[in-house]
Structures are given as C-alpha cells and as structure tokens.
C-alpha cells in the first residue's frame, strides 16, 4: 500500500502542475494583450493632442493674416474705404468741437445774465433773449467803444456810417452784421449817467451794456467784457472793436474780413510795435514796463486800438479765460498779449488805418479804406465837426453795403 501511494504521488503533482501552467499561460497571454492595447492607446491620444495643437496654431495664424475677425474673412479693406473712415472721423471731431464751442458760449451768456441779476444791474435786451444764440449765424459784430460824455460823437456816427432804425435791422437780417455802441455802467449804478444812456437807448436801440464800471484806466477790462459778452450773445465769424471817433466803411470791412473766414484763429488790424514808456505822468505810461526788458524796449507786435477784428475762436478764448487774462495799461497791448503763445494768424492790413488826408485819393483810385482817422489825435481830430466831411470824401458808395454779397 505504501509503495502504491508513493508511486502515485508524483503523478498527481505532475497533473496539477500542468493545469496551473496552462492557466498561467492563458493569464499571461490575456495580460499581454491588455497591456499591449493600453500601450498603443497612449500614443494615439498624444497624436490627437498634437494634431489639435497644430490645428489651433494654424487657425490662429490664419486669423491674424485675415484681420483677426473670423466673421470678416472674405472682406478686403480698400484704401479708399480707409480714407472714407478717416474723413468721417475728422468730420465727427469737427462737429463735436463746434458743439462744445456753442455750449461754452451759451454758458458764458448764462453767466453774464446771472452776474447782472446778482449785482442788481439792468439786463440788456440782448441778454434777455439768449435763446436766439445759435439760431442765426452772423458775419460780424461791430462794437463801437464809447463813453458817457460822448453823446455828440455817437450822433455823428449815426448820421454817417452807422445805419439807423429799420436799415440797421435789415442789416442784421440780410447781411448778418450787428452794430452796437458799447458802454458799461457808472460807479454809482443807476445814477444820472446811466439813466441818460438808458433814455438814449430807448430812442435808438443801438447799445450793448456791459457788466463793467466805466473809466479810462479800465479800458483793458472793458475790452475783455465786450468780447466775452458779444461772443455769448451772437454767433459770428468775426468780432470788431472800433472807437467812436473813427470813420468806417462797413461794406469794405465786411469784404476784408470775408477773405480770412477760413482761418480759425485770426487777428486783423494795423500791426505796430511802439516804445514801452516807463516815465510816469506821460500819456500811455506802462507801470509794468519792467516786464518788457530794459528801458527803451518796444512792445511785441499788436494791432492799433482804433480798429481791430478777431475771429470767433479768439473771442471764445477771451470769454472762457477772461478771469485769468492779465491787463496792461493800454488795451491794445493787453489784447495782443492775450494771443502770445497761441497759434494765431496776425494780419497786418494798412487799409484799417488810413489818414483822413490820404483816404480821399485812395478812394478815387478805387482802393477804399476800411477805417480812417488822424494819428496825431488817435482818432479823427474834432470828430464831431469833421465826421460828415470825412464821410463825404472817404466814404464808400451808399449802395455798396446793400449790394455786397458776403
């Protein structure tokens, strides 16, 4: 029994071993197949990733070359289209600039009215109707600088080169020309001097009252107030200041200014550069002479004060910055100083300062003067008596103004 059992034992072990061997082989085969599938799947996934990355880069390059907008891949930008866009942008900027300028003028008008109310001063009829601003474009506003004591001078101007009544109204409506005598208030507002001006204004209706106290030493302040007020009330291409003892040909003035209408910032007059007078007690003494260098120096170029004109942009500049613009003793010097450092065209036109002795032969030669006066008097000497004579000799044809096309 023991032998048989010993003899059979090796055989049973052998059988078990073969079965396990077979199972192990099958298991190894399956494991190998599974492992093999996993190994091949990874590179496949990597290939897809690489292909996706490469495709994204190619698409990105394509978008860059086509203008970065996938919705406009087939649109080609022509040079004329680009120029059209630039032109539209430029037009939009100009429109915006004009709108801002108009708003600034309306604001200045509101401030002027507010100051009049606060100070208890009578409000000008022009200030009472600011809504007219912007509805009408005028060629020019002519402000005739005058004083309380100059009633006869004003009458001599009314009798010669300044239209009256319905003609003045027609001048505004048909030609776009506003004309006013410019004056402020006396030191005692509402006094006899102010009442006299108010009575004269009721009769003629040709005054522009300023929020300003009259005085010879305050002419620079009056000049600022005039341009600021005029720019706030009327939208004009030009604003003119002239003295009440100067003869003016309005049609010739309008034709002269029109030639410079395309220039945005223009300053027109008879340009001069006189000496800076340091000596006290003399006429035109400059207390701040030291600012102009050594004694004996001259002023910078500026228009003589009898008549000058500035464009709308410069009048708006004065209106906006009037509180910080420095005033020198002489108003024409002050005006010239305000434009130093700005991009301004200085136009020197000698027809704006003809003498009363040479304006006649110039008119006969067809070269009519814009303004005439005597240098020795800084105006027409004895203008009350001589204004009609100068008008007869040097004035333009009486129909020139109504036949002119500005």
UniProtKB/TrEMBL annotation:
The entry's keywords: Glycosyltransferase, Golgi apparatus, Manganese, Membrane, Signal-anchor, Transferase, Transmembrane, Transmembrane helix
Enzyme class, broadest EC rank: transferase
One GO MF term: hexosyltransferase activity
Gene3D superfamilies the UniProt entry points to: 3.90.550.50
GO cellular component terms, semicolon-separated: Golgi membrane
Source organism, top-level taxon: Eukaryota
Primary subcellular site in the record, as a coarse category: Golgi
Membrane topology qualifier: Single-pass type II membrane protein
Cofactor(s) required for function per UniProt: Mn(2+)
Keyword Transmembrane helix annotated: yes
Pathway: Protein modification; protein glycosylation
Residues that span the membrane, as ranges: none
EC number: 2.4.1.-
Cell compartments where the protein resides: Golgi apparatus membrane
Residue ranges constituting the DUF4094 domain according to the UniProt record: 18-113
Family: Belongs to the glycosyltransferase 31 family.
Name by which UniProt lists this protein: Hexosyltransferase
